[in-house]
Specification:
Layout (H helix, E strand, L loop, with lengths): L33 E7 H11 L3 E7 L13 H8 L3 E4 L6 H6 L8 E4 H5 L4 H13 L3 H8 L10 H18 L4 H23 L6 E5 L5 H6 L2 E3 L3 H8 L6 H12 L5 E5 L5 H12 L4 E4 L9 H16 L1
Helix pairs in contact: 1-7, 1-8, 7-8, 8-13, 11-12
């Protein structure tokens, strides 16, 4: 498992509203339309594909410039969350601000925690994760946790299948009149996700390694048959938002020149001069590269986005 996300510059969050007329028997919403709040536009898109025009979906973060790890909720965010019938968050310390708000002012709302729904971690691991973030033990703890698990579960297609089904069932509980519509929407989405998972796993025909400037695409690359060989000191520098030392930079370059890595996975959203140097070096020694973002590219839904990521991996192994 992989590393905690490096913090990027914090900007005020943009709020994206995806809404329309909806069900008449919502148990909490005043106008009859179910209200769903998510951490990012990634989860908002999944909910929208499942529920169509039956719900109003609001992601707290809908900008590629905002980092959920370091985001601080506003009073407006708190009101938005309070009014939600359903909250879909990532969990695992990725979006602590929403983990803390969800259910605090509205005990009736249903909360979906994607890390917990994913079943990637056992009860002991989840307890450790929750305890770690509850006590804010600092960079040393973050370093330890980063080597234990990867919280970026939206890059794990099987986890998103589980989340999709959970969303449909919880919406059906809140809005029985449209229950079949939610389940049909989830079934259609699951079919697409299963197809993407099969396509990804078909790439795992031989053992391959990758070096990453960020941990974000780890699960997708694992499904494609890749093993992470990123040097530990590079991992530590990324985790603590520290400069990459000359020795660590050389170690990363040695991995690339020594043919130990078959791919460089690059996060363009958190690019620095040093990670760009690694990218440029990989290109110069003919190591295939692939860029992965953390949130939805403009104009794409989740399935389209993941399809593009898989196509990038396919090109790298061609």
């Amino acid at each position: 498992m992989k590393k905690a996300l490096r913090a990027i510059s914090l900007l005020s969050a943009a709020t994206l509203m995806l809404s329309a007329c909806g069900a008449s028997d919502s148990i909490t919403a005043d106008d009859g339309t179910l209200k769903v709040v998510t951490t990012t536009d990634v989860y908002a898109d999944l909910v929208t594909q499942i529920a169509g025009n039956h719900v109003e979906v609001t992601p707290i973060i809908a900008s590629t410039a905002v980092d959920p790890h370091s985001y601080e909720a506003t009073s407006s965010d708190r009101l938005t969350v309070k009014d939600a019938d359903l909250v879909v968050l990532n969990g695992g310390g990725y979006d602590t601000f929403l983990e803390e708000m969800a259910g605090s002012d509205n005990k009736e709302q249903i909360i979906i925690n994607a890390v917990e729904v994913s079943e990637l971690f056992d009860e002991e691991e989840l307890a450790h994760i929750n305890e770690e973030h509850a006590h804010h033990e600092g960079e040393e703890a973050e370093h330890e946790h980063a080597h234990t698990y990867n919280e970026h579960v939206w890059y794990d297609l099987d986890s998103m299948i589980k989340v999709t089904n959970q969303v449909a069932e919880d919406l059906a509980t809140l809005d029985a009149e449209n229950a079949q519509s939610y389940r049909d929407g989830a079934s259609a989405l699951v079919t697409e996700l299963e197809g993407l998972l099969e396509r990804t796993q078909a790439l795992a025909t031989q053992e391959r390694n990758y070096l990453a400037t960020e941990p974000v695409p780890g699960y997708l690359l694992e499904d494609a048959g890749y093993t992470d060989v990123t040097p530990d000191d590079l991992v530590a520098a990324v985790e603590t938002d520290s400069d990459i030392t000359p020795l660590t930079m050389q170690e990363a370059k040695d991995v690339l020149t020594g043919q130990q890595a078959d791919l460089l996975a690059f996060n363009e959203q958190t690019q620095t001069a040093q990670t760009k140097e690694i990218w440029d070096f990989a290109t110069s020694v003919n190591v295939p590269t692939a860029s992965f973002s953390e949130t939805l590219p403009e104009g794409q839904n989740y399935v389209q986005w993941m399809t593009g990521n898989i196509e990038n991996i396919e090109k790298a192994v061609a």
